[in-house]
Design the sequence.
């Protein structure tokens, strides 16, 4: 599944990479094209996902190895059946079908137990436990069968205490009364072997009282309870029950039951009547041969050796020795054969996983390369986008810089030249006799200001005489019909105020006075200056017609910008018809 998932992921990634490549550098701007490609991409992913699901469902539906294993089991070919059960289990695990994988393990465990490989059988059965869901009743038949097999092989290995635990679990997950009786009988047999006869008899009595018990189970329980009582008390007469059970088994043609009855009858007569013991031992050997049960044949030969006439003892001993060696050799070969099958299967699986790992590694390398190319492509795209944005930003910065420079020089011309010219015009208009030399000096100063404007030179005196320069500029706007009153403009007022703020205030006041003369027709202008702990406040008022038409002009807009540049505020109050009040405030520190 890992290989399949990575293959489909790889295909999806290539589709995404191709679509992104086809969308060019400006795909973000083309909304319709982007939606088209996203639609195609979603269709591709849905198609690949449906194909993957279809492939997975098809694989889950077929497991020919499982069918093949049962065919060989029915043909009594355990080696081939064992091989295909291993392959079926691996395929079920790939398909995430744990139930059938567990069933394969149980079948393999039963095969190994039948061949005398009790450790291998125990390993497979223990491994199978985790593949079943003990909360699902429809799986109980497999769970109790597996625990019963664990009880059998664990008892064969001599660990009776653990065997009892496994039989208890088999009973716990059983719902069929016949299965419960079988597992109880196995459990009682363990108690009989360890000498706990009372516990064994209690279980056998419970089995006999079951109203649903069939004839075979009844005969088995009757034989076992009689044998247990006889073992507990050698003087107990178990013969009537033994014979009763034998008649039932003969009627039912139960060969396994007959083998058990002949075994118990031979043991019963062994101490009393050798001929009867020899007779039933021979019967047991015949049935064991018919059942092809090697263990029962060996058990019958052991009894024949003990109770046979002296002349026949050597014959039975030789048969026992030959059969025992043959059985041991066969079981060793069988164990080795199953171990070899397991080894070869694991080797094939390991080789397959190795090849699969190498293929995945190759695909991962290709995926990493494509991923790196995709990252490189995105980086190039981001770099190109950043370059375009940066270039556009620099162009905008240049445009803004040129515009700001233009505004700066327009502002300077307006403040230092236009207002200065207007101030000079006001002086010429208001002074009856203008001294020619004084006028020429002022014109020359105006020329120097215009010439040096690009060097940001300041013609204002920002030192100790700033209050006088400011008052001189304000008074220049007075005339025969206009009076200028200045209150509070003292040298101490301007102490600690930085030169830039002084310059801005000078140009603001100059702008206000120019606009007053142009628009207000005022006869009286009052300017009040005062200072508190944090701010300098300037109050302007006149009795003109106001400046409604001048509020939005460039000069007053510049005034607002200037007062903001020194973190100050300006308020225009033009609500009355013939009065204007303006309040200015700015921090002096």
Sequence:
């Amino acid at each position: 599944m890992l290989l399949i998932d990575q293959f489909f992921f790889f295909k999806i990634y290539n589709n995404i990479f191709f679509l992104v490549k086809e969308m060019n550098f400006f795909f973000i701007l083309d909304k319709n094209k982007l939606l088209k490609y996203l639609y195609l991409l979603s269709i591709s992913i849905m198609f690949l996902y449906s194909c993957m699901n279809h492939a997975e469902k098809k694989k889950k539906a077929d497991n020919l190895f499982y069918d093949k294993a049962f065919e060989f089991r029915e043909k009594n070919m355990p080696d081939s059946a064992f091989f295909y059960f291993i392959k079926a289990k691996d395929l079920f695990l790939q398909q995430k079908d744990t139930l059938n994988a567990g069933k394969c393990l149980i079948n393999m465990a039963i095969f190994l137990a039948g061949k005398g490989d009790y450790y291998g059988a125990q390993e497979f059965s223990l491994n199978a436990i985790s593949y079943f869901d003990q909360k699902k009743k429809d799986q109980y038949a497999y769970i109790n069968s597996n625990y019963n097999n664990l009880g059998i092989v664990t008892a064969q290995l001599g660990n009776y205490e653990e065997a009892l635990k496994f039989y208890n679990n088999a009973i716990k997950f059983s719902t069929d009364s016949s299965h419960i009786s079988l597992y109880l009988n196995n459990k009682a047999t363990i108690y009989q072997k360890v000498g706990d006869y009372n516990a064994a008899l209690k279980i056998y009595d419970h089995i006999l009282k079951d109203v649903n018990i069939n004839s075979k189970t009844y005969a088995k329980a009757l034989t076992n309870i009689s044998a247990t009582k006889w073992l507990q008390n050698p003087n107990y007469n178990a013969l009537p029950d033994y014979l009763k059970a034998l008649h039932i088994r003969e009627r039912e043609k139960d060969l396994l039951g007959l083998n058990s009855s002949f075994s118990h009858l031979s043991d019963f007569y062994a101490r009393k009547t050798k001929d009867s013991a020899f007779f039933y031992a021979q019967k047991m050997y015949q049935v064991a041969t018919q059942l092809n049960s090697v263990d029962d044949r060996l058990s019958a030969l052991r009894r024949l050796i003990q109770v046979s006439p002296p002349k026949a003892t050597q014959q039975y001993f030789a048969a026992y020795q030959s059969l025992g060696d043959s059985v041991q050799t066969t079981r060793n070969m069988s164990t080795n054969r199953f171990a070899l099958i397991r080894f070869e299967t694991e080797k094939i699986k390991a080789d397959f996983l190795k090849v699969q790992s190498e293929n995945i590694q190759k695909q991962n390398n290709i995926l990493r390369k494509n991923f790196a190319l995709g990252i490189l492509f995105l980086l190039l795209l981001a770099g190109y986008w950043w370059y375009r944005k940066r270039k556009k930003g620099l162009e905008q910065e240049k445009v803004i810089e040129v515009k700001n420079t233009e505004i700066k020089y327009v502002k300077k011309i307006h403040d230092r030249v236009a207002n200065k010219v207007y101030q000079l015009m006001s002086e010429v208009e208001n002074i009856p006799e203008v001294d020619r030399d004084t006028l020429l000096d002022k014109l020359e100063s105006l020329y120097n200001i215009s010439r040096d404007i690009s060097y940001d030179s300041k013609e204002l005196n920002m030192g100790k005489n700033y209050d006088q320069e400011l008052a001189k500029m304000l008074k220049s706007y007075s005339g025969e019909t206009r009076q200028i009153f200045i209150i509070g403009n003292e040298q101490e007022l301007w102490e600690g105020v930085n030169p830039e703020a002084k310059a801005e205030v000078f140009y603001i006041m100059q702008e206000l006075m120019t606009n007053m003369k142009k628009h207000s027709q005022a006869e009286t202008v009052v300017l009040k200056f005062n200072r508190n702990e944090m701010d300098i406040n300037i109050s302007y008022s006149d009795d003109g017609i106001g400046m409604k038409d001048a509020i939005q002009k460039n000069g007053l807009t510049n005034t607002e910008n200037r007062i903001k540049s020194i973190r100050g505020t300006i308020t225009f109050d033009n609500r009355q018809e013939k009065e204007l009040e303006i309040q200015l405030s700015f921090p002096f520190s």
